[in-house]
Amino acid sequence: MIPAAVVAALFVLLTSVRLADWRDDFALFGAEVRLSPRSKLAPLHLGAAYLDAGDPAAALELFELSLSIDPGFDLAQRNAARAREQLRSLP
Amino acid sequence: MEPPVHFPDGGAGGGDVGRSPSRWGWLVLLVGIVAVLYGCTIGFGPINLDAPVAIGRNPIVQGSPGPAEWAAAFTYVGPLNLWHPVTWWSHQLDSLCFGFPSWGARHGVNLLLHLGAAALVFVLLVDLVGRTRPGICASFFASLLWAVHPQRVETVAWLSCRKELLATFWTLVAVLAWLRFRREGGEQERGSGPARAWVGRWWLASTACATLAMASHPVAVVLPALLLALDRYGPHPIGGREGWLGWLPRREHAVVLGAAAATTLVTLWLHQRGGLSGLEAAHGPIERLSRMLLGFWYYGSRLVWPWPCRLFEIPPAGLQPRQWMALGGVAVTAVAVMVWKRAGRGIAGVRAHHRDGCLSPG
Asked: Are B157 and A17 in contact (CB under 8 A)?
């Protein structure tokens, strides 16, 4: 039973680390951008979090990262257009 | 294929030590560890991925749902085009009990469902391997590993994974009730139990919970296959049929099979109409099949080597859909063959091992 206890303790440690990623959008999608650099969805969702938080400049950078992975990704194109629109309307 | 192993004691009584207090101690310890580990999720908010369409902007969950919304849940599929009325009812119940949106309370319900499932896994494993001290100890560690596995975080901390939690919970209750139904049947056959009709309270409970599981998430349509496997390899095997005939369903499987068929047809029909917001329509059948097989391979490998956890898994660079399919197909076939060859020996072997006291609790 000792090996099972050791694996369980390791799982508890890894799970507590992973749980910290799930506390909000920035932590989760920020981790995804780091862990899956070829994912077009990770920068899209992190960009959306920045857009909702009122930071269109950071959001646009991430939407462009998503488009650099898949230039035809329509969700990233639409969100990038929204971010540019918000940047233009900033004083 | 090895013949199913029959236990002369009729099942869970192999090496049975009765209602050992230590069983409840292990159960409390298991629930306590899982509660402390996942307790932090109650302070989390919603993740902007599916949660808005499942809860935040869902017209039948928002506010204080009335009879019209409760009725609408039976046919509502949402933007994901997924039929799971029990999950909608669960979200609606949250809105009624805690108000809207009450994210913390919703996370609390997810946690309670996971705690319940962890406890049920423990009880189920004890039923399968026997109530000996080593059996209880092994069941504790197996259920603990299941409950605290890093891949489980996604299911517990993601509010739109309520459907998976509910399906798991009801599936486990259905399986436990099925084992009790078979145990009563075995006692009746041996003349040690009261005579009953073949449909008893446990059959009714199992069938009802299986239907709830399928109406929580269509993935639970695999339940009839699970029940058939339990009838062949479980602690109360059904005799009377030799070879592959033993796998054929009996009349007591009819309702669960019917529910599974209906759920499958509804889900396929909805997906034909544009499941997953039309994302599926953008891919051909070969690519969709390859993604499904790759998904099996991905989750199987994550089960064994769970780190680092990722939400979005990207297939290896340079692989074409047909190559993914071949990769996933090989993995799924290998696992299926292994299960086919080992299933009987697995459960039966563990039970025999524990009954003989070969496994030290230390």
From this structure: no
Locate B358 and state its tokens: 């070969």
Identify the residue among A19, A25, A45, A73 best suited for mutation to test binding to B, counting B beta carbons within 10 A and taking the highest.
A19
Characterise B35 by phi-psi region: left (phi > 0), alpha (psi -120 to 50), beta (else): alpha
The verdict on a CB contact (< 8 Å) between B145 and A39 is no
Q: How far apart (Å, rounded) are the C-alpha atoms in residues B47 and A49?
A: 10
Contacts (Cβ under 8 Å, ≥6 apart) of B176: B120, B123, B124, B127
- Which residue, among B214, B212, B215, B241, has the nearest Cα to B228 in the 3D structure? B241
What residue type is B165 in one-letter code? L
B137 to chain A, any CB pair closer than 8 A? The answer is yes
- Would you call A28 and B47 a contact, using CB atoms and an 8 Å cutoff? yes
Enumerate the residues of chain A whose CB falls inside 8 A of the CB of residue B41: 19, 22
Domain ranges of chain A: 24-89
d(CA A30, CA A75): 18
Cα B224 to the chain's mean position, in Å?
12
Burial B345-359, CB ≥16 within 10 A → b, else e: eebbebbbbbbeeeb
CA distances (Å), origin B243, targets B76, B230, B232, B239: 44, 15, 10, 11
User: For A24-89, which CATH superfamily applies?
Assistant: Tetratricopeptide repeat domain (1.25.40.10)
Q: Is the pTM of this model over 0.80?
A: yes
| Mean pLDDT, each 10-residue run in order, chain B (362 residues) | 40 46 88 97 90 87 89 86 91 93 95 98 92 90 96 94 96 95 78 62 94 95 92 80 78 92 88 59 68 76 84 70 72 76 58 48 32
Angle, CA B50 vertex, CA B226 and CA A51 arms, to 5°: 155
Interface confidence, given as ipTM, is 0.90
- Spatial contact of B197 and B22, defined as CB atoms under 8 Å apart: no
In angstroms, the Cα distances linking B283 to A36, B180, B241, B290, B321 are: 22, 45, 44, 11, 10
